[in-house]
Amino acid sequence: MKTLIPKLVDAIGPSGFEEAIRELIRKETAAWADETWTDTMGNLYVRKAGDGSGKRVMVAAHMDEIGVIVAQVEDNGFLRFANIGTLAPKTLLGARVRFANGAVGVISHDGGARAEIIGSKLPDLHRWYIDVGATGKDDLPVQVGDVGVFAHPFVDLGRRVIVGGADNRVGCAVAIESLRRLQNSSHDVIMVFTVQEEIGNRGARVAAYQLHPDLALAIDITPTGDAPKSELTMAVDLGKGPAIPVADTRMISHPRVRQALVDVARQHDIPHQVFVLTLGGTDASAIEPARSGVMTANLMVPCRYVHTPSELVDWQDVEDSVRLLTAFLQSDLSQVGG
To answer: pTM for this one?
Structure first.
């Protein structure tokens, strides 16, 4: 995992531009896949067949990330941009952006750092720009329509790791590693590495309609409520195991699927946290109402500083998420229904 996650976060893939990360995941899963395909949206499906006696289980992990797209080039070489996904303005000033061709820029806004220091109100997004060091339009390394993502180094802190793009490359790593460890399952498991989650769960909606699974899990990260004076009223702490939400702002997890996750965690002595996600949602909200409905729940890795350039996760939480997902996919799910 300590070699897989750095590779995943190094691949640029904001929503709608997932080609590089999709090909990397295809290579990383090839040795354990019975079947692999891609749909017109760009979702990557990796199937591991069971013995035919179990369920058809969809596991979704979105492979896209938040980012920026160049919207206008000014005469002096500065780039105005639009957001891809949700960007927190208070985290943008001084953040570095990395483009697919290797170009790097820094984000600022009209008035610059001094305006920030003296406490001015953060400007609207159209007043922010990217400086790539160009002297004008003639020596710009990027153009209108080019996309970029936050550029921050992967830092291993020992028990924990700082990683830009943890949302959701950590979830992808959990799915990939679980696929590698999965043995002798009765279930037909289809790992779907979905596109465009950050702009409306679009890939998951298409995938769920195509697969029509008996049940589904969305693998993602979740904010924690353990930071100093945190305003997030969520019972999730870093380092206390994978998080299983009862509900989020977009859906209620199916109680039988959620309970099955909890039961498996208890049976295998895997630390876990049951909570209510009070901010945002996941691909699960698009999977659940597909066709005649899909029994759907979430399995989430706790993460501090979500949707900032420097997200932070705990290695043991990641490992325990892999253990729980693998054990769930090898368990008897006949009582869940579907």
So the answer is: 0.95
